[in-house]
Request: fold
Amino acid sequence: MDLGRPYRVLAHPLDGSVLAVLSATTRPLTGREVARLAPEGSQPAISKALGRLADGGLVERREAGNALLYTLNRDHLAAPAAVLLADLRNVLIERLRAETARWDVQPLHASIFGSAARRDGDATSDIDLLIVRPERTAVDDQRWREQLDRLADAVRRWTGNRASISELAESDLGRLAEERPPVIEAISADAITLVGDDAVRLFRKDAV
Reply:
């Protein structure tokens, strides 16, 4: 570890992919297993990342027959920061849940979908949010609109990404469940629920 420049322990974007895998388990994994579980990167590229991290001490490497096994060195000074960085998507999800739980006017449903839910976005991707306004709340209700604005501002501060909020009225659900436009299929496939029923149930024909 370069103590003069400790931030270099994460020298390559794929290092984060490796740490996302290793931080989620204490079981030793082969390089092939890490590559299979990593959200991005070819097997040769993941092998190079494992080598870099092992040379820096953040990953422990040991021989097991003809294979090399890798684990996260949780005693390493950088391990807490590495685990936090690898888990930031889950931190965002929990912050979104906490933020919407504080709303005076509770949504019928809220979820995160799109690239952030699928783990395939980048620094330029929007954070896609679906918010369903309850029937008793008017579209121009001041408290409701202020909540949405605060949420968008919070997402920008937390991530640097723009929040793209898709707002639906409760009365829209039946029509959308019947018509099943592509966006509803996409939401049903990958949405992570923050408030209310999950998206699959929300847009099921017999549920609205």
Summary: The first strand starts at residue 29 and ends at 30.
